UniProtKB/TrEMBL annotation:
InterPro entries found in the cross-reference section: NADHpl_OxRdtase_5_subgr, ND/Mrp_TM, NU5C-like, Proton_antipo_N
One GO-annotated biological process of the protein: electron transport coupled proton transport
NADH:quinone oxidoreductase/Mrp antiporter transmembrane domain boundaries: 100-380
Membrane topology of this protein: Multi-pass membrane protein
GO molecular function list: NADH dehydrogenase (ubiquinone) activity; NADH dehydrogenase activity
Protein's UniProt name: NADH-quinone oxidoreductase subunit L
Sequence intervals crossing the membrane: 53-76, 83-100, 106-125, 146-165, 171-190, 211-229, 241-262, 269-288, 308-329, 341-364, 384-402, 407-425, 445-466, 473-494, 566-585
PANTHER family xrefs: NADH-UBIQUINONE OXIDOREDUCTASE CHAIN 5
Keywords noted in UniProt: Membrane, Transmembrane, Transmembrane helix
Subcellular localization: Endomembrane system; Membrane
Upper taxonomic lineage: Bacteria, Bacillati, Actinomycetota, Actinomycetes, Propionibacteriales
Gene3D superfamilies (UniProt xref): 1.20.5.2700
Source species of the chain: Kribbella antiqua
Length: 587
């Protein structure tokens, strides 16, 4: 009964967010403040605002959250009450971030999202990887949020206000502006899993697939892009910050795309893809122009549709087949059984991957090209940042097309060069001698799970035409050729039954191992040192004091003999001793 109530509440709240976005569409921008308290020369309080950006993000969050809640009705049956309650709170926290006109109100939503993500990633707490992934996400994002908190204070005190709508970069000294925005950027990098705090997001995949869809598509990781877009005048006023953002975004998009090329699990490929696509959005914002901001937000909207779709499709594979990893799916891909047994999932996942790869006609093609065009215009004016962004995005287009094609072919098709298992695992395949599994009972997911897939698939196509973008068709042709250059090697490798994964890519450049050596090992060593000091030093003093008291009490107990003659003798000896001491002192 409780679970049903929370399911209804979750779906209803998500629909309410969509309805709110519809009602606010076209209204004049407005701000409202409440609970204001003067503290010296500052006023600390809360405020909300409505404008075009608020409406846009509310619509994205509401639609994705509704799809996730409806999908979860058929997907998740383990502890559903707590799950739907946390998803609803997670959505409410993102809504708080979106409508906030106060840095403190935004911080509340920001932190509540972090807490909810920890609980949702660790929903299957019986699994060790889920527990470790949740703790890793919590620690890395909380570490970054320390900088975020200090950034709020630096900017607020420097500007004389904590109201976002009243922050005027012209009234903030350049040093304070750069310091404050840099500290905020630390929080953004952590929340959106950008280099060097990118490793928590792929390790969060043991959580339920609908949670992954919500985190990757519309809430937590997208909050960083939204924050910079909301404070764009403040961030773009510092050339240093724009340069730092461009470098971080360029390194991240290439690093994560290379990791996605070698990932084996479907959800892990999609996770690294999210990191890369967020970096493309940040690269558009780093241009510091209105076109760059528009391109980044356009890509944020389209990415929400096709990435939410892809994670929900991965959830169907997990739900129906038993695993979303190539290693297990290969039993079904030997004869292309999955695309025949799961036709709706195959069709919708094809749409999602096409949008992600930037295939012409799909939403990702239009939004990605707006970023490329904005970077080209900026680079043509002689901007170094523009050239960095342009080259990075173009190379990422090639890499993205490669891992999308690789994922699509290996999951749904049987390589003509293989008679059995996947080529990369053929020699050590533990199932190579097994007969083909019986797929007669393998069916597509129930329609309560497929309906959100169809809706998001339509959005993954239609959103590209909703913005009315006028593309530079020369640049569009260039990016299409680049995508083909990435897809063709993936097809060639698949057709030859080869799936080579260089060790450095398979190990994701050894970043996790390096972090373990640099941070985890020293922290554990200091923890053991602290425990040893507590037990062997401080504890020794405590134990010695207790032992001394025990020994003293035992000694005094022995003096209590009950013999009056003994007591009188002791008293006489004491008086004589005192007299002798007094005589010595007086002489």
């Amino acid at each position: 009964m409780i679970a049903t109530a929370w399911r209804v509440t979750g779906v209803g709240f998500s629909l309410l967010v969509v309805l709110t976005a519809g009602l606010l569409y076209g209204t004049d921008p407005a701000q409202t403040s409440f609970m204001n308290s003067p503290v010296g020369d500052l006023t600390i309080g809360f405020g909300v605002r409505t404008d075009d950006l608020t409406v846009l993000l509310l619509a994205v969050v509401g639609v994705i959250a509704t799809c996730v809640q409806v999908y979860s009705l058929g997907y998740l049956h383990q502890r559903p009450a707590s799950y739907h309650a946390l998803v609803t709170l997670f959505t409410a926290a993102m809504v708080t971030v979106v409508i906030a006109d106060s840095l403190f109100l935004l911080l509340i939503g920001w932190e509540v999202m972090g807490a909810c993500s920890y609980l949702l990633i660790g929903h299957y707490w019986e699994r060790r990887d889920a527990r470790s992934g949740a703790v890793k996400a919590f620690l890395m994002t909380r570490l970054a949020d320390v900088g975020f908190l200090f950034g709020i204070f630096v900017l607020g005190v420097g500007a004389g206000t904590f109201r976002i709508s009243e922050l005027d970069p012209a009234q903030i000294s350049p040093g304070v502006l750069t310091t404050g925005t840099l500290l905020l950027l630390v929080g953004v990098v952590g929340k959106s899993a950008q280099v060097p705090l990118q490793t928590w997001l792929p390790d969060a995949m043991p959580g339920p697939s609908p949670v992954s869809a919500l985190i990757h598509a519309a809430t937590m990781v997208a909050a960083g892009v939204f924050l910079i877009a909301r404070l764009y005048d403040v961030f773009s006023a510092s050339d240093t910050i724009m340069t730092v953002l461009a470098i971080v975004a360029s390194v991240t998009m290439l690093f994560s795309a290379l990791c996605a090329m070698a990932a084996v699990e479907v959800k892990r490929v999609l996770a690294w893809s999210t990191v890369s696509q967020l970096a493309i959005m940040f690269s558009g914002l780093s241009l510091g122009t209105a076109d760059g901001r528009h391109a980044a937000l356009f890509h944020l909207v389209t990415h929400a549709a096709f990435k939410g779709l892809l994670f929900l499709c991965a959830g169907v594979l997990l739900h129906q087949v038993g695993s979303a990893a190539f290693v297990v799916l290969r039993r079904y891909t030997r004869r292309g059984r999955l695309r025949k047994a799961l036709p709706v999932t195959f069709a919708t996942m094809t749409v999602g991957l096409a949008a992600l790869a930037g295939v012409p006609g799909f939403a990702g093609f239009f939004s990605k090209d707006t970023v490329v065009e904005a970077a080209w215009h900026h680079a043509r004016d002689g901007s170094v940042v523009g050239w960095i962004v342009l080259v990075s995005v173009c190379v990422t287009v090639v890499l993205t097309a490669f891992y999308c094609m690789r994922l699509w072919l290996w999951v749904f098709f049987r390589s003509p060069a293989l008679a059995g298992a996947l080529g990369a695992f053929e020699d050590d395949d533990p199932m190579a001698d097994l007969e083909e599994p019986d797929t007669s009972k393998l069916r597509d997911a129930p329609w309560i799970m497929l309906a959100p897939l169809v809706l998001l698939a339509v959005a993954s196509i239609g959103l590209g035409y909703a913005d009315g973008v006028q593309l530079n068709w020369v640049l569009a042709l260039v990016t299409t050729v680049l995508a083909l250059l990435g897809a063709l090697p993936a097809y060639s490798l698949w057709s030859r039954g080869a799936d080579p994964r260089p060790v450095v890519l398979e190990r994701e450049f050894g970043v996790d191992t390096a972090y373990h050596g640099l941070f985890v090992v020293p922290v554990r060593w200091f923890a053991r040192l602290a425990v040893g000091g507590d037990q062997d030093v401080i504890g020794a003093y405590v134990r010695a004091a207790g032992r001394a008291g025990t020994l003293a009490s035992q000694g005094f107990r022995r003096l209590q003999t009950g013999n009056v003659q003994t007591y009188l003798t002791a008293a006489v000896v004491g008086v004589v001793a005192l007299a002798v001491v007094a005589g010595v002192i007086s002489s």
